[in-house]
Automatic annotation (TrEMBL):
This is Metallo-beta-lactamase domain-containing protein. It comes from Arthrobacter ginkgonis. Residues 34-242 form the Metallo-beta-lactamase domain. It comes from the Bacteria. SUPFAM superfamilies: Metallo-hydrolase/oxidoreductase. InterPro entries: Metallo-B-lactamas (IPR001279), RibonucZ/Hydroxyglut_hydro (IPR036866).
Amino acid sequence: MSNETTAARPIADGVHWLGGCLPANAQGQEVHYHVSAYLVVGAEAAILVDTGDPAHLPTVIGQLDAVLGNRSLDYVFPTHPEIPHAGNLPWLLDRYPSALVVGDVRDYSLHFPEHEGRFRPMVAGECIDLGGREFRFLPAFIRDLENTLWGYDGGAGMLFVSDGFSYIHDVPAPDGDDEPVHLPGQCRLLSGEMPAPPTVEQAAYGTGRALYWTKFVDVSDAFRRIDETLDAFPTRLIGPAHGNVIDDVDGMLRTSLAAHRKVYEGKPLYSE
Ligand SMILES: [Zn+2]
Ligand SMILES: [Zn+2]
């Protein structure tokens, strides 16, 4: 893994971009696939959104230590129970004995009976007070599992979207792989810092491959609800687990909606 992915990046007051990248080979070129986590630190409490991949456990631990210092981690919020999102839970629970797991935690006590009592079910609409800022659980309007949840930090105006809004840039696809990728050196760039904003085709690529069902479902209703959410909860940043952080929210939302429609309709859709 390249060095540039090993440091956390502060991206807003109290919000840090953690995790790492999994390298892949794309027709002879090294490309990267994000497995990101986000740490939101309030005056009273800190919450980790997704756990990072077990392959990055030492990286994530180092990033948490660097940001938290002597503070504890209070909450871990796996957006859904898949390895890149929840895989580091057992080590995090051991390392932070007072941390609680929050979100849709319906099955975790079966996997981790030794941590029974540390799982706090949260439903969309519920909030956690971090001290001076509130973390809100939201429905996942684009999701790959039934119990995926999104989150929103009111302090920074940042929306955490799990597997939603992953996209690729102008790089070849990894051999035999369909995941959204970026080039070494672009690991911690905001979308507005990338060489060029993603085109509809690039967004469609990541969307159609990562979330297979979008070929078959009209996402207009989902995007209307996302629009309503953005109206209700002003959003300056969007943090996907598998893509660069989006700082051009309106532009990216339009691109992604066009991408979903293109995948659904299965025909070219011309951008303006
Ligand atoms: Zn994922
Ligand atoms: Zn990378």
